[in-house]
Amino acid sequence: MPEAPSAAARDLVATMTGFARTLRAAGVGADHQRTQGFLTALGHLDVAAERDVYWAGRLTLCSGPDDLARYDRCFAAYFAGERPRQGRPRTTVTVTRLTAEPYGSRDREEAGEQSAAPATASEIEVLRHRDVARMTAAEREQVNRMLALLRGARERRGSRRFTPAHNGVLDSHRTVREAIRRGGEPARLHMRTHRDRPRRVVMLVDVSGSMAPYADTLLRFAHALVRAEPRATEVFSAGTRLTRITAELRHRDADAAMLAVSAAIPDWSGGTRLGEEIKALLRLADPRGATVVIASDGWERGSAELLGAQMARLSRLAHRVVWVNPHKGDPAYRPLTAGIMAALPYVTDFVAGHSLAAFEDLAGLLAAGTRGPARTGRRSHA
To answer: What is the pLDDT of residue 294?
Structure first.
């Protein structure tokens, strides 16, 4: 009978598969087969040697040259260590060697002990599922670094424009023009097909007082979406008024973008009038065919009836409506507030937004999307 794997072996597998998930979120082709190859390679190497882990992952998890830069960034962020040097360095670089510490050292630091080491790989795996409202400043900074690595891919949709293709419908104009150039001699048939483009995302982030613990993280997720598809993303903040913040989020650096957003939003930590703001959103941002993401806990100070009416209008126009509620990550949470109860009948997907893992799932939802008609009569509130 085969021997059951030890706890240390299970922890190692969980840590390394978590690294592979991080790579996939950043756009590296680290699929299941490549992950299995990575784990098999580690079985023949010294997993305590950082160089061995680095090269095992680089040779098994990357699918092409485009993945190498992303892999290096993810490795540095996930393992918080110095990656092996490649060839002779052109300049002298000073690197601070970071030592691993067992999980729980944060508690000792809060008790008064001094420690400058950031989160290690095992800590990051725990942080992926931790509520951001309960994190220390150092843990939140680590999660912000991981959020900056999100790929922010989009579901593709067909457009009305055509592009040349090997298969598709006959492109009569190009075919006739080539025949004319040949003096009327028969020419090969040219084909064309519809182009595809990323589906637009319109995101509304609640920055009221009840959402204060989550607003910064949600805005950083929005920054990753804008950075990935700047022409197919619109972001608004919602408080006592609606504010367009897309331009501020186009800064390449996430911290610079957050500073610009802070200066642009006049109603931080105020109340929420979601019904009026969704009405304004329908006027300012055309939601037709777009995926609309509303990040809010649903505490509505205005009229719940108005919110329900505007959500009904929005659901008829949008491709899908995704409601992100940070409190949904709590197993004891029940959607009982008047705002949530008025909105849920018109929501396609009701998802959590309290942790790094929840944001990775949301990014995957926006990348996969749905195929076929936008309205199927089914709602996902689980």
So the answer is: 97
pLDDT tens digits for 109-132?
444 444 444 455 666 778 888 999
Inter-residue contact 76 to 83 (CB < 8 Å): yes
Q: Note the pLDDT tens digit of each residue in 2-58.
A: 555 677 777 788 888 888 888 888 888 888 888 888 888 888 888 888 888 999 999
SS (H, E, C) 119-167: CCHHHHHHHCCCCHHHCCHHHHHHHHHHHCCCCCCCCEEEEEEEEEECC
Q: Can you tell me whether residue 282 is helix, strand or coil? A: helix
Helix (H, G, I), strand (E, B) or coil at 318: coil
Q: Which residue has the tokens 């483009």?
A: 197
**Residue spans per domain, the chain:** 1-86+99-127, 159-198, 201-368
The CA distance from 59 to 129, in Å, is 28
What one-character-per-residue DSSP string does 184-228 give?
T---PPPEEEEEEEEPPEEEEEE-SGGGHHHHHHHHHHHHHHHHH
Q: For the chain, give me the number of helices (H) and strands (E)?
A: 14, 9
Minimal CA–CA distance to 229: which of 262, 263, 202, 261?
Answer: 202
Phi, psi of 20 (to 5 degrees): -65, -40
Burial of 193 (0-12, 13-18, 19+ CB in 10 A): middle
Cβ-based neighbour number of residue 285 at 10 Å: 19
- CB-based contact 257:279 (threshold 8 Å): no
- CA geometry: angle at 364 spanning 363 and 369, to 5°? 105
* CB half-sphere exposure, 259, CA atoms < 13 A: 6
Beta bridge partners of 350: 323
User: Where does residue 333 fall: left (phi above 0), alpha (psi -120 to 50 degrees), or beta otherwise?
Assistant: beta
**How far, in Å, CA of 283 to CA of 292, rounded?**
14
Coil, strand or helix at 31: coil
- Interstrand relation of 191-198 and 156-165 (parallel, antiparallel or unpaired): antiparallel
Assigned CATH topology for domain 201-368 = Rossmann fold (3.40.50)
pLDDT digits (tens, 9 = 90+) for 79-96: 864 444 444 444 444 444
Percent of the chain whose pLDDT exceeds 90:
36
